[in-house]
Structure formats: C-alpha cells, structure tokens
Specification:
globular; alpha+beta; Nucleotidyltransferase, domain 5; 7-stranded mixed beta sheet
Length: 489
C-alpha cells in the first residue's frame, strides 16, 4: 500500500492525516492551540506550541494507523496563510508570537500609504490594501520587537509564513515557501513569481530574512528519517487541489474559521473590479502557474466558536445545528460578525460586529440561526462578486471544510444563493490537496488529471426558497452590513 501524509496547520488547530493512493483516509489526529488576544484587534499564536502540536499529531496519526513515518512515501504541508512568524536560526526559537491573518494592528500603517504606493501593491500583487497580508506584519515585527530587529541585524532572523516554519523544523533547517503562500504576503510579484524589490523597499524588509519561493508540488527537503517533504500549499489553494478544481471556471468554497471561495482562471491573471483578490492557485513542478480569483470572509466558523466560548449559548460547536433548527426562521434577527472588520468584497477594517432586529420574542435559537445565515450571506456576497468579475453565472458550488458537516447550514446556503451546493465524501479537502500535490511531486500520480477520478460526491442541496423571499431577506442582510460600517474612527 502507498501512504501519503498531510500536515494541515490551521487557524485553530493542527491535524495530520494519512491517505492512501485512492484518497481514502487511513488515520487522522488533531489538536487545538491557544488563540492569544493581547488587545482588541490583535490575534497571535505561539509558534512553539504549533511545532509541539505538529510532532504530537504526526505521532498520533501514525499510532492510530500502526504505521511508522518511514512507511510514508511523502509528506505535504498545508497551512493558514498570511500568519507570520519570526525565529532565530541559532536558537531555533520564535522571537515573538506569530501575528495571525486576522490581526489588524497594522491597519493604520496600511491606510497611511500614499495612493501611488497603494496602487503599486495592488498592481504587482493582485491584493487589496489591508492588514490581512503578511508584509505589514513582517514590518511590524522588525520595527516593534527589539529581538527581531537584533536578529535581522545579525543575519540570524528568518521571517515567514507558517509553512516555512514547519518545513524548517521538520527538515532540520531547510528554508523555503511556495508560490501560493508567497502570493499572500503582498511582497511577491504575480508575474515574476519572485519577491519584488520595489515592494521590499516600500515595507523596508531585507531580502535575506525571506525564504526562496518554489513550486507548490516540489521535493523541498527530507525529514531526518528520509521522507520527502514534497508540497507546500496555502490552505485554500490546497482545498482547490483537493476538490480537483483544475479547469478554468472551477470553483470551491471552504468553510472553516473563515470562508474562502476560489475560482480557477487558468494561466490568466484576472484583475478584480469587485473587491476580490487575484492569487496563485498552484504550480506543479515546472508547469506554468495557475491563477485564481479569491474572496475571503474573516469570520464564519469562528462566529460559532464565539457563541460557544463568549456567549456560552452552546457547549459544543456541533450543537448549533439543532438549536438553529428549532426555529423556522431568524425571527427578523441578523448577525454580522465583523469582529475584525469586513473582508471581501467590502474590505472595511473600520467595521465591527452587530446584531440587529432584536425583539422581546428573540431567543438563543434565533441568534444561532442568524449566525448560520451570516455564513451563507457572506459567502453569497463573495460569489456574486466572483460572477461579476468572471462574467460566469454559477449554477453550483463545491463546498468543503468542517462546517459543511452541518446539513442545515448547507440547506441555508442553497436557499440564500439559489444554486446547488455539492459536498464531496472527503470534506477535509485542504489536507487532501496537500497529499495530492506531494504525491504528484514523487510520482504517485503523474499529473493533476490522474487524481480527478478520486473525487466522489457525498450529498447535494437545492434551494427550497421562493426567489422573492430570497431577494427580500438578502436586502435585509445588506442593511445589517451597512450598520457595521464606520464604527472605528
């Protein structure tokens, strides 16, 4: 049997999955890590905790499968993107907590850029001006953390996204990243697929602290046991590969801590005029890079965690389905979880969360249903923008990620969008995509088309909602979104 390992390092947890050549799950082990919130708008992770959990989940999955690490033909790594960590090569220790993609501490700096510099960033990178991306996080670490500044001066600093941190630790010192992660930093030129000197100068970041940029599917290094580390890929691009979205026009939406919709645009770099991002979708070896349009929603699954942890109206996230299903509708309640601003297609860091439409009749169940509807409405916002940019009307959408196990949410999504929602058998397609990319790099599969036959449908949902009702409810949603704006001066 052929076994491939996939390390899936996400925003809230780290998981190691083992697949066979038919894309069947052999074993999986997962651990959550702490969300460190020093002050409003700041979100951090402990890089040492993430690395410790990585070792534990690899050992746990191998133990469950009765395999040794040398039984794996390759390992692929997929990761939360934009989250940025600095460490010292002499000690091997982080120099500061990682700044998570949700962190907004650099919003003021990004907003202070001149119009010409904002245009430069957008034109070269395909990204919008937002604290979301890694460049301003790297700048903050260098400017604000003396230990980082000293290591940069001494030449011992390494700063990168989480894929680079994991590769460095797993391989014993290899330092690299892939085109998908690099395309999320606001430092890589979309056309040259290399760090752009003008952007490095703009953010005052020395080139020697950054990793070399490689293809997604590529043998980067080996573990001490000799297992090839054969793929690095940002989590959302990993899900595109896992969903076998290899044709121009293929799209998927991943439901996780946030929601992320991508549309394959092939070798063409399409510049969005509707608030979306242009990003690298993947690059297999020496083949040309494939690009995508992307819409990112900051808070979807994490809104359910908020109901669980802060409001404590549920004790486990899975309880949300039954609670929300205990009422027929939202009772007029709309919840916009703009906890750290709004991402696509609005890109408003001044927004903050609101709950509107409350009455004496409102209950926990109505709020729970409004939270699920918020996931669906934010996803519609993004997909409508995607259709406008691509001039393609979506008739169906492939979905994946943990929240898609919620059947009520999937029905709400079909009702909100008026299209078919299709869930595959394996909903953790992010990890599967990393396994596919690694397997292609070491010859388990010869090409992306070889893995397409592994995609298997689990269930699909069609809309049951009257189109007039759908339009009316969506207008109410947009009114609620408008209430979130201009909250932060």
């Amino acid at each position: 049997m052929t076994y491939i390992g996939a390390l899936d390092q996400g925003t809230s947890s780290t998981r190691f999955m083992i697949f066979d050549a038919n894309a069947s799950v052999i074993a999986s082990h997962q651990l959550e890590h702490a969300q460190i919130l020093p002050q409003s708008g700041w979100v951090e992770h402990d890089g040492s905790e993430i690395w410790a959990n990585t070792r534990k989940v690899i050992a746990g999955a191998l133990d469950k499968s009765n395999l040794k690490i040398t039984d794996l033909v390759a390992i692929g790594i997929t990761n939360q993107r934009e989250t940025t960590l600095a460490w010292d090569v002499k000690t091997g220790k982080p120099l500061h907590n990682a700044l998570v993609w949700q962190d907004t501490r650099t919003a003021e700096f990004m907003n202070s850029l001149s119009d010409s510099n904002k245009e430069l960033v957008t034109r070269l990178t395909g990204l919008t001006i937002a604290p979301y991306f890694s460049a301003s996080k790297i700048k903050w670490l260098i400017d604000s953390v003396p230990a980082v500044a000293e290591a940069v001066k001494a030449g011992t600093a390494r700063i990168g996204t989480i894929d680079s941190w994991l590769l460095w630790n797993l391989s014993g010192g290899s330092f690299a990243t892939d085109v998908t992660n690099a395309s999320r930093t606001a430092l890589m030129n979309l056309e040259t697929l290399d760090w752009d000197l003008d952007l490095l100068a703009l953010f005052n970041i020395p080139r020697n602290v950054l990793a070399d940029i490689k293809p997604t599917s590529h043998v980067y290094a080996h573990t001490p046991e000799g297992v090839p580390i054969a793929a690095l890929v940002g989590d959302q691009q990993g899900a595109m590969i896992g969903q076998t979205c290899f044709a121009v026009g293929d799209s998927k939406t991943t439901y996780g801590t946030g929601n992320f919709a991508l549309l394959n645009t092939g070798s063409e770099i399409i510049r969005s005029t509707h608030g979306l991002l242009t990003t690298v979708c993947y690059k297999f070896g020496n083949e040309p890079a494939v690009y995508a349009l992307e819409g990112s929603v900051a808070v979807t699954g994490s809104a359910i965690q908020w109901l669980r942890d802060q409001l404590q109206i549920i004790t486990t996230s899975s309880e949300i389905e039954a609670l929300a299903g205990s009422v027929d509708d939202n009772g007029g309640v709309y919840f916009v979880p703009a906890f750290s601003g709004l991402f696509a297609p609005y890109w408003r860091s001044d927004a903050r969360g609101v709950i509107v439409g409350l009455s004496r009749a409102s209950t926990n169940a109505h709020l729970a249903r409004a939270a699920l509807e918020a996931i669906a409405y934010q996803t519609r916002d993004v997909l409508d923008a995607m259709s406008a940019d691509s001039k393609v009307a979506l008739k169906s959408m492939r979905v994946d990620g943990g929240a898609t196990a919620n059947n009520l949410l999937m029905q709400i999504q079909a009702d909100v969008m008026g299209i078919e929602i299709i869930r595959p058998e394996i909903i953790e397609t992010t990890a599967l995509g990393a396994a596919y990319a690694a397997g292609i790099a070491v010859g388990i599969w010869q090409s992306p088309s070889d893995v397409e036959k592994n995609w298997r449908e689990n269930q699909r949902w069609s809309s049951t909602q009257n189109p007039d009702v759908r339009a009316e409810k969506y207008e109410q949603w947009k009114k609620a979104v408008n209430r979130t704006l201009n909250w932060i001066e």
